[in-house]
């Protein structure tokens, strides 16, 4: 029997999973590789971090998605490089996986912009493990404060700083406010919860910069009215274990800095030896193939794909999903001996939620309109339920959201980081604070 052409896909995120599912009925041997055996619905990671959802409710086993499709195969491995002349993918174990077509969609990594101490002392939010660690850390600070309230002022124990005023930062700040005011206030009745601060730092002069100005102002007003401190036009220039230093000389005592300031290409991009653009993204042809290697495609956050005006596409899930469908068609065209076509991204709109009954929505397709408040919030809820993988996940999330909404409670307030209670650990020696230095780039 003639062997089917093999398509190897690296990454089980939005792009990789969409591509594999799109090719499930084609006469191809499709191999999907990821370091995790599950797909994560990243837009809801912040809800896991703020105890609104459990990790398994926003994740789905990759093999479960592929059940019943004999031409789809999954391998759990970490891809470390590609031998382009030999057409082989190399994994961390040294295994070589051959391909006829290769699609790289490994997602993105956190961009710390060279800020001193940021990587060591902040909490990123790119995966389930990071979300669970952050949730445990936040609740630990309240446990420590409940045991010794003097630490609230001495160490800024209940200060949470969120850097980056994009959708992730805004959604995280709004969710933290609800967690503190509606849930932890009841859990810790002896604590002065009103002294818990949520500080959102944004270097631009507005939050949600890609949105319409009116929507941006609504988001800022809503966050402020609900209790957040929104600091615009400032940059994080230095981070220590006990404080965040800003470009204007302000020092915020805190043990919790959530880094939502930006993304860059993952380490795999540097290992390929290919031309790279801003943020380490790999330069691609208009059809998303790699220059000089027409059998290799890159899509999603790692691809430096551009629109008709030469601007880089945003690193968003819709770009990866549309790119995956485009690449599937180009592989089919290549197999038929036809010329490929350029990728055209259709921006259907953007949404962001600020919390209960409050969101912003800017829709471009199929009709153009902008809205805020309760309607935008319902639209945001509906879209994210539809995009979740698996009926069980959708049902669980819907039940949890309904419970949270009517009871003003959250059931996932669990510390699952495996660490012993703080009073069983050696005391922490606070490092002295010195004059902040200004880094080349801020957050």
**Total beta strands:** 25
Structural class: alpha/beta
What portion of residues is helical? 25-40%
Q: Distance between termini?
A: 56 Å
Percent of sequence in beta strands: 15-25%
Number of helices: 12
Shape: globular
Please describe the biggest sheet, giving its number of strands, its sense, and whether it closes into a barrel: 6 strands, mixed
Mean pLDDT: 92
Q: Taking strands numbered 1, 2, ... along the chain, how are they ordered across the largest sheet?
A: 5-2-1-9-21-20
Rg, Cα atoms, Å: 23 Å
Short précis:
With 443 residues, this protein is α/β, with parallel strands linked by helices. The protein contains twelve helices and 25 strands.
Task: Reconstruct the topology from this structure.
Layout (H helix, E strand, L loop, with lengths): L5 E5 L3 H9 L6 E6 L3 E3 L4 H5 L9 E3 H5 L5 E5 L2 E5 L4 E4 L4 E3 L2 E4 L4 E2 L7 H4 L6 H20 L3 H4 L4 E5 L3 H21 L9 E6 L10 H13 L3 E4 L3 E4 L3 E4 L4 E3 L2 E4 L3 E2 L2 H5 L10 E2 L5 E2 L2 E6 L4 E2 L12 H19 L13 E7 L2 E6 L5 E4 H15 L3 H17 L36
Parallel strand pairs: 1-2, 1-9, 2-5, 9-21, 11-12, 11-17, 12-13, 19-22
Antiparallel strand pairs: 3-4, 6-7, 7-8, 10-18, 14-15, 15-16, 20-21, 23-24, 24-25
Helix pairs in contact: 1-10
């Amino acid at each position: 029997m003639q062997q089917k052409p093999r398509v190897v896909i690296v990454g089980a995120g939005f792009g990789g999973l969409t591509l594999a599912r799109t090719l499930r009925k084609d006469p191809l041997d499709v191999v999907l590789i990821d370091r995790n055996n599950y797909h994560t619905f990243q837009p809801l990671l912040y809800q896991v971090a703020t105890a609104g959802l459990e990790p398994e409710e926003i994740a789905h086993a990759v093999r479960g998605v592929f059940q019943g499709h004999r031409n789809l195969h999954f391998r759990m491995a970490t891809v470390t490089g590609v031998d382009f002349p030999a057409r082989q993918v190399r994994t961390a174990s040294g295994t070589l996986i051959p391909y006829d077509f290769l699609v790289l969609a490994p997602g993105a990594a956190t961009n710390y912009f060279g800020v001193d101490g940021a990587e060591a002392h902040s909490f990123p939010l790119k995966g389930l493990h990071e979300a669970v660690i952050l949730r445990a850390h936040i609740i630990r600070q309240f446990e420590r404060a409940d045991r010794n309230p003097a630490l609230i002022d001495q160490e800024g124990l209940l200060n949470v700083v969120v850097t980056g005023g994009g959708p992730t930062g805004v959604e995280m700040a709004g969710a933290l406010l609800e967690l503190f005011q509606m849930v932890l206030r009841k859990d810790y009745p002896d604590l002065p919860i009103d002294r818990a601060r949520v500080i959102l730092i944004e270097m631009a002069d507005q939050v949600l910069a890609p949105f319409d100005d009116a929507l941006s102002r609504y988001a800022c007003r809503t966050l402020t009215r609900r209790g957040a401190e929104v600091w615009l036009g400032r940059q994080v220039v230095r981070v220590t274990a006990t404080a965040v230093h800003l470009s204007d000389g302000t020092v915020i005592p805190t043990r919790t800095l959530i880094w939502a300031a930006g993304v860059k290409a993952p380490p795999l991009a540097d290992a390929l030896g290919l031309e790279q653009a801003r943020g380490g993204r790999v330069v691609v042809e208009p059809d998303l193939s790699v220059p000089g290697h027409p059998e290799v495609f890159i899509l999603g956050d790692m691809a430096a794909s551009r629109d008709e005006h030469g601007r880089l596409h945003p690193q968003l899930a819709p770009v990866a999903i549309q790119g995956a469908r485009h690449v599937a068609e180009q592989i089919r065209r290549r197999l038929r001996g036809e010329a490929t076509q350029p990728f055209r991204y259709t921006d259907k709109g953007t949404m962001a939620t600020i919390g209960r009954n409050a969101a912003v929505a800017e829709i471009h397709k199929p009709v153009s309109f902008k809205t805020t408040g309760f309607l935008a919030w319902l639209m945001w809820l509906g879209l994210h339920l539809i995009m979740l993988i698996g009926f069980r996940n959708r049902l669980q999330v819907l039940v949890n959201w309904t419970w949270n909404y009517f009871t003003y409670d959250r059931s996932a307030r669990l510390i699952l980081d495996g660490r012993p209670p703080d009073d069983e650990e050696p005391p922490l020696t606070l490092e002295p604070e010195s004059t902040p230095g200004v880094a080349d780039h801020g957050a």
